[in-house]
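Q: Could you fold this chain for me?
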Amino acid sequence: MDSLFFIASKAFWFFARPENLPLVLFFLGFLALIRGRKRGALWFNGLGLLLYGGIALLPVGDIFLRPLETRFAANPKITDPAGIIILGGGEDETQSDFSRMANVNAAGERFLLGMALARRHPQSKVIFTGDTLSLKEHSLSSADVARMLFTQSGIAPNRMIFESKSRNTAENAALTAKLVQGFETGPWVLVTSAFHMPRSVAVFCHAGWRNIVPYPVDFRSGHSLDRVKWDFAGHMDELNIGVREWIGLVAYRLSGRLGQLRSTGC
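A: Sure. Below is the predicted structure, expressed as C-alpha cells.
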C-alpha cells in the first residue's frame, strides 16, 4: 500500500504541476486554430500569455508558501536535545553519483543548519532519514550522500544514525522511530524546509514522537514587493513547491497519515 501511495503521488504530480497550465492553454489555442475557431484560439493563447507573464513577473508562490513558512518561528530556543533529525531532500544524489562527491540542491540548508546544530550540541545524536525521491536507481543513496557530508563536517561516527528506506514524510517518522531509542521522550530537533515543517510536525506527532522542536530552514517566501522581477523559472519553482505541499497536506489528511496541524511541537 505504501509503495502504491508513493507511485500514485508521483504520477498525480506529473500532471498537476502548475507549470503545465500555460502549455495546456497554448495547446488548446493551437487546436482551436486548426479547427478554424480563431476567437477561441485568441482566448486560449491570450490566457496563456497572461498567465505566463503574471508568473514571470510576480512571486505568486508566496500565496501558498507564506502560510506554511510562518507557522513556526525561525531559530527557536533549544536546550539539551537528545537528537537532531534532518529530513532528506537537501541532497542531490544524481549529481553526487555522477561526481562521486557530496552535492546538495536548493534545500541544502537542511544539512548546513543541521550540522551547525550538531556542532552546537555535541552530546546529541545526528539522525538522517530519507531515501531517494526518484524512481530511478543510483549507486549512491541519499543516506550515502548524508554520510559523506556528516563525515566531512567532523561529526563522530558514533553520533550518526541513518534511516535509508523511507520515501516520504510518513515513512520518515515511522521507520526512524524503529531505529531510535526514547523517541517518545526527546527533545528532538526536527530540521526541514520551512514550507514542509507543518506537515512534518503533524506526521511525526501522529507517529508517536514527543517533545519535537521544529527548526524550520530553507525559507522560500519573503517580502513580495522586493521580489517583483522577471524570473519565470524562479517564480514557477516556488509556485510548484507551494502547490505541491498543499496537495501533500490534503493527501496525507485523506489517507490518515496526518495528525493535528500544530503551531508548536508535540
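A (continued): The mean pLDDT is 90.
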